Amino acid sequence: MIIESILKINPNAEVSIIGHDINDCEITWHNGTTPISNADIEAQFPAVEFDIAIGELRTKRNKLLAETDYLALSDQTLSSAMNTYRQSLRDITNGLTTVVEVNAVVFPTKPTE
User: What is the mean pLDDT of residues 5-25?
Assistant: First the structure.
């Protein structure tokens, strides 16, 4: 999470890290990368945690959508229930701003085809 936090601040940072705890790790800055304070790096942890959580949610959502993609082909008739289900999946990330909100998401139940 330390590297991800550094890259949120400076996407071009060249850095190596030994350790996993921000207060107990060794950070080496390479090729003229301006060092970033531990406090500034740590301040990015919630954003990185959110990015990870929302990424996992999107992966699960995308898998569920892929499982029903064949029903949305032009030679198929998509039922109203399936259309609503697929739209609910596409909208599932709307308005989420915290890890707690992401973790509280309840996926809709897939209707029978």
Answer: 95
